[in-house]
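Key result, reporting period 2: structure in, sequence out.
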């Protein structure tokens, strides 16, 4: 390398090199105590932010962004699949006055109302919900009574489960699922010191579940009662109720369900149809939905027939846009689509339990038990719906959370999840040294 080139390179380097900053002059400490404080401050570096990429500070997010994205993804897929499952329904004389987009339009409206309700709910501190939990439970019981009145409740297919509210029909059992999660969490907080005593800790809760069960079975809505009992039992177990007491209560509930099935002819027939769906006696009767659901999954194979290409939704599979939406997903999107939905619900339930554990670790027992109760609700109901669609469980009238067509169900789902997101926000505030 020639001396001329070296000189030119050195000149350019000096020209564009950043100017050196003068050293900071720290005034000397005037007292020994001040000198000690300064030494501690120099020994423990404090950073306002942590540089992670291109010198930009990493922002502390106030909520679980991944959880929200998964919920939005399920809502979006639900919109698409509800439209696909209901687009051919106007061909049925029963729905001849509806347009092909009727159910899609109403579902979009339901989702919009639900999102608005969730945005309002997430602004409310969890402490307010804890104070209101007994009154919300009482309100849900009153609505369960009102829906049984002939001039208030609306009967559909022999069941009286809805209260007409103009734009949509409200199903009190959906509010009861949220109310029982709140009430059970608050109950365990209040009874924490006597949780080892059966009569003082468990009997009042057992009576409350029994009252709810009687009202739901009068509709009838055994599926909702199963979910509500599971939520309450799960919260009692997670709250630390004695294991022997828990087993006794579980045995009593299982015995009650067996007795109800034994004493009811149509429930018993439904169990037999579930056990033998291809029997000629049941294929065109009690097992009609299940047999066509299984046909839909079989046609879907690995990658599905393609979006909108389902045959079973063409008046073969009843309630394709509500209880049996997963069967349409299986036929059109195949095993891959169903597996993605299953994984999404598993991840949501796992994440809700994690948020609940964080809250309990921060000594927020009500918030933690409530979050885990909602995890039981979402995961349990999704499991039952998927089991029914796949023929693993007897047919029950339970929708797939966040996805199936329905107004009050999606509203209550998003309100419950909004409260859990609020719990996560308050957890993060406490872990950063703030106040919930």
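The corresponding designed sequence is given below.
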């Amino acid at each position: 390398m020639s001396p001329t080139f070296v000189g030119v390179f050195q000149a350019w380097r000096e020209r564009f090199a950043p100017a050196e900053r003068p050293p900071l002059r720290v005034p000397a400490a005037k007292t020994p105590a001040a000198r000690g404080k300064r030494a501690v401050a120099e020994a423990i570096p404090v950073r306002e932010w942590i540089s992670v990429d291109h010198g930009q500070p990493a922002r502390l997010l106030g909520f679980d962004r991944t959880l929200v994205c998964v919920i939005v993804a399920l809502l979006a897929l639900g919109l698409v699949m509800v439209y696909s499952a209901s687009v051919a329904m106007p061909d049925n004389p029963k729905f001849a006055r509806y347009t092909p987009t009727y159910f899609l339009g109403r579902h979009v409206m339901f989702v919009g109302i639900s999102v608005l309700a969730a945005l309002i709910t997430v602004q409310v501190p969890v402490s307010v919900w804890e104070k209101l939990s007994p009154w919300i439970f009482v309100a849900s019981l009153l609505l369960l009574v009102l829906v049984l009145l002939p001039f208030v409740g609306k009967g559909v297919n022999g069941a009286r489960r809805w209260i007409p509210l103009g734009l949509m029909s409200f199903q009190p059992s959906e509010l009861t699922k949220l109310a029982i999660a709140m009430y059970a969490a608050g109950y365990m907080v209040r009874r924490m010191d006597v949780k080892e005593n059966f009569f003082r800790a468990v009997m009042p809760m057992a009576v409350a579940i029994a009252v709810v069960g009687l009202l739901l079975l009068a509709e009838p809505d055994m599926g909702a009662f199963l979910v509500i009992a599971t939520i309450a039992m799960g919260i009692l177990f997670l709250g630390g109720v004695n294991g022997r007491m828990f087993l006794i209560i579980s045995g009593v509930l299982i015995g009650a369900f067996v007795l109800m099935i034994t004493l009811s002819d149509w429930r018993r027939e439904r169990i037999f149809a579930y056990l033998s769906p291809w029997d000629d006696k049941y294929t065109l009767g009690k097992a009609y939905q299940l047999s066509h659901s299984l046909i839909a999954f079989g046609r879907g194979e690995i990658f599905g027939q393609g979006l909108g290409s389902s045959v079973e939704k063409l008046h073969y599979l009843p309630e394709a846009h509500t209880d049996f939406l997963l069967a349409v997903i299986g036929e059109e999107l195949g095993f891959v689509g169903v597996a993605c939905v299953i994984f999404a619900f598993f991840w949501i339930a796992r994440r809700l339990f994690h948020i609940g554990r964080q809250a309990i670790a921060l000594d927020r027992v009500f918030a933690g038990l409530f979050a885990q109760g909602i995890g039981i609700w979402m995961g349990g109901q999704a499991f039952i719906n998927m089991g029914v669609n796949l023929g693993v469980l007897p047919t029950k009238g339970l929708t797939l959370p966040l996805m199936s067509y329905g107004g009050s169900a999606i509203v209550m789902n998003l309100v419950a999840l909004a409260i859990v997101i609020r719990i996560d926000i308050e957890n993060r505030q406490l872990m950063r040294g703030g106040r919930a």
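The first strand starts at residue 51 and ends at 53. Residues 325-361 form the longest helix (37 residues). This case is discussed further under Risks and Mitigation.
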